[in-house]
What we know:
Elements: H1 6-9, E1 13-15, H2 17-28, E2 38-43, E3 46-51, E4 65-69, E5 76-77, H3 79-85, E6 93-96, H4 98-105, E7 109-111, E8 119-125, E9 128-136, E10 139-142
Parallel strand pairs: 6-8
Antiparallel strand pairs: 1-2, 2-3, 3-4, 4-5, 7-10, 8-9, 9-10
Amino acid sequence: MSPGSSRVRNVFEPLERSIITKLWEERFAIPEQAFSGYRFFRKAKSIWALSDVDLPALSYEAIGMRIMNCKDRPWKPTTSALQVFGRFASKNTMELKSEEAKIFLEGGSQAIESGCEGGYVVVFYRGDILGCGLYSHGKLVSQMPKERRLERE
Length: 153
């Protein structure tokens, strides 16, 4: 079997829980307890969360939920992960108004003043999590996956 074979690429490497929870705590002030009952794995440049169960030694295409993309710096949280864990965030969160939320869900960019640090933010509307935004210099750029975006009118 060659080094580039699917068997080599499909290895999920277990990660120390504290490494992952520390990143989420530093960026979003999400406490470690929010991740209780989960284990973390790395595959290529992605981090996955899975309920705390033992996995048979098999080759997997996917397990659990992809929660982080680490191909760039800083790491990027997935929309799905923020929709699960973002309710625990008390830092770098942004509450949008109706028209702002619509622009965000369409995948747009907009000028918004916020006290957030530059970087990825948890975006809310009426207390519900919409997903991940990228905030920099007074501008919010939607990170909504294309397949989840609203169609523009």
